[in-house]
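Researcher: Please predict.
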Amino acid sequence: MSQAADERTTIQGFLDHHRDVLRRKCAGLTPEQLATAHPPASMTLGGMLKHLAYVENWWSVGVFLGEQPGEPWGSVDWAADGDWDWHSAADDDPAEVLALYEAEVAAADRVYAGAGLDDLAVRAHHRTGERSNLRWILMHLVEEYARHNGHADLIREAIDGQVGD
């Protein structure tokens, strides 16, 4: 990524970089390793991958487009388990979780490709009541990935000693 790129290219470049870091942190692990937590935290890399698939869907479909999420998200009883995305990954085939993640990333990118950075989301933010513009959403995704990639670093190192992004 060029260090002199325009705003849109820069933001998308950082988001894509963080998506790639997550992919590398999850690559080559067995289902058991993807379901391994690093105590005292209960986070797993498989859960993180599924959570970020949901995050991609939520911000693109749920917030930006203001639509109801598709499956598997639409039929989840979130009131019964607000962290279903994290918890359910342990029972999923890792290839299916990765495929779900890749599908949600691609779908989100298609939504955002047709919009400008100043375009406003349909759904207002649940805390502020304010409608976010695409710039804010993309920067929030960069922040979300950066935070979770820090967790992923620790979890992956605890599993097999692999460090670096």
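Model: Residues 28 and 34 are 10 Å apart (CA to CA).
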